[in-house]
Amino acid sequence: MNKWVEEEGNQVEIPPSFIELYRVAANGKFSETRQYVAERYEMCEDMAQMLTLTAREMQYSLGVTENDVLIKTWEGLTVNDAIFETHEAKWIIRRLAELLDWRALQGI
């Protein structure tokens, strides 16, 4: 487990894939506080979980591919004035694909 996660003693376990969204490559430090990252993680995880039913229904009702559903969902997450930063939206799409046992969307 990441030392940064352990040091804070917060009970929310943030996956490394999400933590890395906030690591500054140049110096390896984090761009945000642990509390901020935990709050954003919970919001992004909740969104991915919430989108699972919607994604399945979209695929069935529209008769489109899994990839089409992920693209449409990506577009919805990244519209102007979106709640999620681009890097968070990418993580949500990857997490959604994982939850649905779909192939991850390439190129975003």
Give an overview in words.
With 108 residues, the chain is mainly α. The chain has one domain (3-100). The protein contains 5 helices and no strands. It has helices at 3-8, 16-19, 34-62, 66-77, 86-100. The longest helix has 29 residues, at 34-62. The model has no long low-confidence stretch (mean pLDDT 89).
Please tell me the overall pLDDT.
89
The percent range for helix content is 55-70%
Major sheet: size, sense and barrel closure? none
Tertiary shape = elongated
| CA-based gyration radius | 15 Å
| Number of self-contained structural domains | 1
Strand content is: under 5%
Order of helices and strands: HHHHH
Count of helical stretches: 5
Low-pLDDT ranges: none
Question: How is this fold's topology laid out?
Answer:
Blueprint: H1 3-8, H2 16-19, H3 34-62, H4 66-77, H5 86-100
Helix pairs in contact: 3-4, 3-5, 4-5
Tags for this model:
108 residues, mainly alpha
Q: What would a concise description of this structure say?
A:
This protein is an all-alpha fold and 108 residues long.
